[in-house]
Specification:
- With about 475 residues, this protein is α/β, with parallel strands linked by helices.
- Helices cover about 40% and strands about 10% of the residues.
- The strands form four sheets. It has a five-stranded parallel beta sheet, sandwiched between helices. Strands 1-2 form a two-stranded antiparallel ribbon.
- It is globular, with a radius of gyration of 25 Å.
Length: about 475
């Protein structure tokens, strides 16, 4: 009787522990035959390693598959420090590939038609038009700044063409209190938060009104007032930084989260893996948003990882995850809104893999036609363009007209060109600002260097005027 009672207690303890687990087991019945999932038009529910209940806004514990436990000895449990583990007499390896790929959540098909009858977070007319206006503005700004670089007016540029929905829709789902740790393809978040076209131009031209005082290369934006950390060229360094900041928000009981963006290539960096593990263990409110755009510069995702994309990496670290159609503005908005709510209320990290496509070259230093078919680029630019898809949905709602479209694009183009002209005319930062805003108090060796620079400028003012950098 004592032995039976002890077995009953062990089984009861295990069942209770498993029912309390917040993460659902990873589905290992998938087959990653290719790493960029074709975006079908079939209805797919938003799934965070479980089934999202659209009506109650809660997670059910139902799974779409999971680990198989053949010949499980339910009365034998290994009491391990990380939690009880069921024992089995049959040796079974976890498969390295699954039979079915993780599904991709979407709301609108390529023609802007809803693909599901299930409810999703409604977007009203005012918000929808604001989102669309910003998507168009980002697209035009990128096009003109790219052309400016080709004309030799700025040294470097990098566009977000084809990824406007991830930029704007995710920004719309966040609040100004949420802290952004971007990579270099997220200017849309700044645009949404109020960063002006003139501020973008000042940074790219590195004039005296640039907040970085010309010390950063173009597109390395930053804004303390808008909670947007300055872009770093080094891949993936922003990811662990976001986790640390999220831990600070948790300690201060802030009703906000941190959000870090990165590309599929960044998931090959150690910073990504260390950050996910750190976030899961410390249970901090952070959103990891991966723009899986198919190409890490010239490396396709098929050569980037063997797994089913990025979404499956979350559960391995104990992180709730979802794959979403990154070219569907409504799907991105809904997924990020729900993820943000869970991250803050439940104090947990969330991983979002947004499937999209980089239509443009990686940067002005790249020619992507050397490593991918032009037909592939053209297909994503036309058939699956996120801005056009959202526009079709607006048209069907009767919220937008061709006349409004023409007026918007004309007005935005004028504003961007004016911002560029004004930035070009503005003076460059003074050499006296070389050390400004870098240190709270200058180290001795820099004090001596600053003194030498000032003395040199004083002796040769024509060669080194104060309004021209060395």
């Amino acid at each position: 009787m004592a032995s039976l009672l002890s077995r009953f207690r062990a089984a009861h303890h295990l069942i209770r522990r498993l029912s309390e687990r917040r993460a659902v087991p990873l589905n290992l019945n998938q087959n990653p035959t290719s790493n960029l999932l074709p975006l079908s038009s079939s209805p797919v529910p938003a799934t965070f390693n479980g089934v999202w209940n659209q009506n109650s806004h809660s997670m059910s514990t139902e799974t779409q598959g999971g680990l198989q436990h053949p010949d499980i000895c339910t009365d034998q449990v290994l009491d391990f420090p990380g939690g009880p583990v069921l024992l089995t007499s049959e040796m079974s390896f976890i498969s390295e590939s699954a039979r079915q790929r993780t599904s991709c959540y979407r709301v609108l098909d390529d023609d802007g038609l809803p693909v599901t009858d299930k409810s999703f977070q409604e977007v009203g007319k005012e918000l929808a038009l604001n989102m669309y206006s910003n998507m168009v503005t980002l697209q035009i700004m990128d096009t003109i700044f790219y052309e400016a670089q080709r004309q030799g007016r700025i040294s470097f540029y990098l566009t977000s063409i084809g990824e406007e929905a991830i930029n704007i829709a995710s920004a719309a789902a966040l609040t100004i209190h949420d802290v952004i740790f971007p990579q270099y393809r997220e200017p849309g978040i700044l645009l949404w938060r109020g960063f002006t076209l003139q501020e973008f131009a000042n940074q790219c031209f590195g004039n005296k009104d640039d907040y970085g005082k010309g010390r950063q290369m173009p597109i390395h934006y930053g804004s303390r007032s808008l909670n947007y950390f300055t872009v770093s060229s080094t891949i993936a360094t922003q990811i662990p930084n976001a986790v640390g900041a999220a831990y600070s928000l948790k300690m201060d009981n802030k009703q906000a989260c941190t959000v870090t963006y990165f590309g599929d290539g960044a998931t090959s960096e150690g910073d990504f893996h260390g950050a996910l593990n750190f976030a899961a263990v410390t249970e901090v409110p952070v959103l990891f948003i991966c723009r899986n755009n198919g190409w890490a510069i010239s490396t396709p995702t098929s050569e980037q990882f063997r797994s089913d994309g990025v979404v499956v990496k979350g559960p391995a670290y104990g992180i709730r995850s979802i794959r979403v159609d990154g070219n569907d503005a409504l799907a991105v908005y809904h997924a990020v809104s729900v993820a943000r709510e869970m991250a803050i209320k439940e104090s947990r990290p969330i991983l979002i893999e947004a499937l999209t496509y980089r239509v443009s070259h990686h940067s002005t230093s790249d020619d992507s036609t050397k490593y991918r078919p032009v037909e592939e680029i053209e297909h994503w630019r036309t058939v699956r363009d996120p801005t056009s898809r959202f526009r079709k949905w607006l048209d069907r709602n009767g919220w937008w007209t061709d006349k409004e479209e023409s007026e918007l694009r004309s007005e935005v183009r004028k504003k961007v060109l004016h911002a560029i002209q004004a930035a070009e005319r503005q003076e460059k930062p003074s050499v006296a600002d070389l050390f400004t805003d870098v240190y709270d108090s200058l180290p001795n060796h820099l004090v001596e260097q600053e003194k030498y620079i000032r003395e040199t400028v004083a002796k040769h003012p024509k060669d080194y005027p104060l309004d021209v950098p060395l």
